[in-house]
Amino acid sequence: MRFLVAVMLVCLMAVSASAYDQFVVHTRMTSDAFGRALARDSFLSRIGFSDGRLNRTPVVDIVANGATAEDDGQRPLNHFYDPLSESPLFFVNGDYVCLAEGVKKGEFNARLWATSAPSNQFGLAAAKQQLIEMIVSSSQSERDKDAYDLFTSLGHMMHLVQDMAQPQHTRNDAHPTSENVQCTVDIEKCRLDDLNLWSRYEAWCAENLNVRTKPAAAGFYSGYPVVSLPSYAVYFNSGNDRGLAEYSNMNFVTEHTNYSDRQCAPFFFTSPQLPRDVREEERTVNVKRYSIDGSSYSTSTTYSNLVYTFPTYDAYTQTTAENPYHTLYSYFDYELLKERYQQVYSLSSSAFESQASLLVRRAVGYSAGFLAHFFRGKIDAQWQKNSSGTWDVTITNKSAEKIGADARLKATFRATKEYFRQGGVDSAWIVDAPLSQAISGFSGIAPGQSVTIRNLTSADLHPGDELTSFERRLVVIGSLGSEPQAVLPLVQLGQKILRAEITTSRPGTVGFAFTGPIGWYYPTTVEELYPLKSSYTIETIPSDDGIYKLIFAFNPPTASGATTCNVRVWYGDKIVEDRSFTLDAFDNGQMGSYVADGYSGSVVGPPGAATCIEHRDGCKLVSGQWTNCASRWWEAASRPTA
After folding, report:
1. Is 362 found in the same domain as 385?
2. Same structural domain for residues 240 and 109?
3. Same structural domain for residues 104 and 157?
4. Which residue of 22, 309, 488, 595 has the fewest CB atoms within a 10 Å radius of its CB?
5. Is residue 302 part of a domain?
């Protein structure tokens, strides 16, 4: 029901318009969509995350958190998109005239906000740049930050696609919620009851679609295919009803765009039309009534309702599904929960349930498809060493679309900080050039076709080292089909790197090193011990067969209390150690043994259980050197699978 009056001009200054509950529904939709996109195409392996984690954090959690954050602040004002008028959100008054300047409205419609708004730091352009930087940045810390930003931005964009499955967002039905902090203690203060604007549909979803408390709700999220469409914009609006905004706009009515409600330019909705399939149902409800003295009381009243069934048409799957509670016509208003003097159309909880059963699974399928579309560009690279010591690389287009003549290739190789000895740098350039400069007559790469860039080298590669022994990180940037500036990444593993990440529950100074069959691979210096930190990373490239040991000694700033340490060790892209332990104040340290392939890949030691030896000698820093460091030593007699 629309009962918007001029008082909105004042009240709406303190509200924002959100969509599906960000902490329950959006989180679940995003997690499910991510899993389904990944099941169809293992894009994480192509970009160096075969274990599905960024350090200790599952990538899906970062993406879901990004989806949650899209509802922060004023961002929801850009979450509306009428596919008929291409309009963003407008607030309107009872006469359907747009309110005076200064009232909140969307700067961009949701499609533009996701795909082309320059002010959106989590939009498509930002995600593409973050993907490029994640591949070619020169240090692990920079790449980790770029990866985190990329996965966060993908979550933000998936949220915007999911909002197109909320008809209020595609029919300009503003449903603000108060930003008053009292919302946390009194939900009624969030509902703006005098304006009747809060979304009952979203409230129903938040209450009923939490799979943790209601496992049966999982069925609402499943059952729709991963959508495949030719461009990002088409996931919103295709022009032939295959976009998600088109589906929700033309098949559903909302709380303030029902058949009793007026329409306002430019929002003239010709669909849906009141269906002919109607039945009569009786419902008994408790109605709050008021006495002359102002006191209230409840009475139980039975109302006769006309209930309409609507055949929702899905142009993407070319199927029709019935919505058995499209709208209700009654003297009882099921939205305002009160009796009316004339019959009105309104939506009951049954209507919200039937809407959710059709819309939520499509939100998952479309946002999964949007994510898959982002990673659809695929390349392969084959390296061949020439007699001169230079390298040729052959790039094959594994995508279904042509890579354009404007393509540029960026490629680096990754070793360790010790290899380059340039601060935190652990990688160096192989090539960064347009393919038209590197290949005479280059006109693009058709699907399945290849081109070769010849005589590549890197000044940072040590004499005698093989480029293919190192991890190579490549990205092609250019048009892909009709998409400009597409990003096609590839991470190729080389010789496996031993990398350890250690986090502690409180800051302190740390001494640690990898040792191998021929001695110390990462000697600790005093510069590595300060300032006090709670996160440490070391790495080395094993060059010999045998057992490699991680020695770790932690010195807290105070002598009292214990410290929890978390240790994770990668051998190549596989985790071979992931555990936690507690250290006493000055009884600190840990050793783990890891078997490296070296060049022969031989297995060292028979299978067996771990053994522990404990030392308690104290640990001190004297003249810049660690002495008498107590430690707990752990050796595995079996070779970890890597």
Report:
1. no
2. yes
3. yes
4. 309
5. no
369 and 456 fall within a common domain: no
- 475 and 575 in one domain? no
Q: Domain for residue 281, yes or no?
A: no
Q: What is the CATH number of the domain that holds 211?
A: 1.10.575
Instruction: For residue 193, give its domain range.
Output: 8-272+352-374
DSSP string, 466-494: -GGGSEEEEEEEEEETTEEEEEEEEEE--
Which residues fall within 8 angstroms of residue 550, CB to CB, at 6 or more apart?
Answer: 500, 512, 513, 514, 567, 569, 577, 590, 591, 592, 593, 594
Residue 282 lies in a domain: no
Is residue 297 a part of any domain in this protein? no
pLDDT, tens digit (0-9, with 9 covering 90-100), for 403-435: 999 999 999 999 888 788 777 799 999 999 999
Residue range 50-67: average pLDDT? 93
Query: pLDDT for 127-145, tens place per residue?
Result: 999 999 999 999 999 999 9
Q: Are residues 555 and 477 in the same domain?
A: no
pLDDT > 90 in the chain, percent: 53
Q: State the maximum Cα–Cα separation within the chain, in Å, rounded to a whole number.
A: 101
> In the prediction, which pLDDT does 102 show?
36
Residues 439 and 546 in one domain: no
Is 489 within 8 Å of 463 (Cβ atoms)? no
> Rounded distance, CA 172 to CA 625, Å?
68
pTM of the complete model: 0.79
Residue 537 pLDDT: 72
Q: Compute the distance between CA of residue 496 and CA of residue 543 in angstroms, rounded to an integer.
A: 10
Per DSSP, the three-state class of 436 is helix
Q: pLDDT tens across 554-568, in order?
A: 555 555 566 777 777
For 349-355, the CB contacts below 8 A with 24+ separation are 349/204, 350/325, 351/325, 351/326, 351/327, 352/200, 352/201, 352/204, 352/205, 353/204, 353/208, 353/325, 354/323, 354/324, 354/325, 354/326, 355/167, 355/201, 355/252, 355/323
Tell me if 510 sits within 8 A of 554, measured CB to CB: yes
Average pLDDT over residues 231-252: 97
Q: Which two tokens stand for residue 277?
A: 């399939």
Both 523 and 464 in one domain: the answer is no
Whole-angstrom Cα distance, residue 220 to residue 203? 16
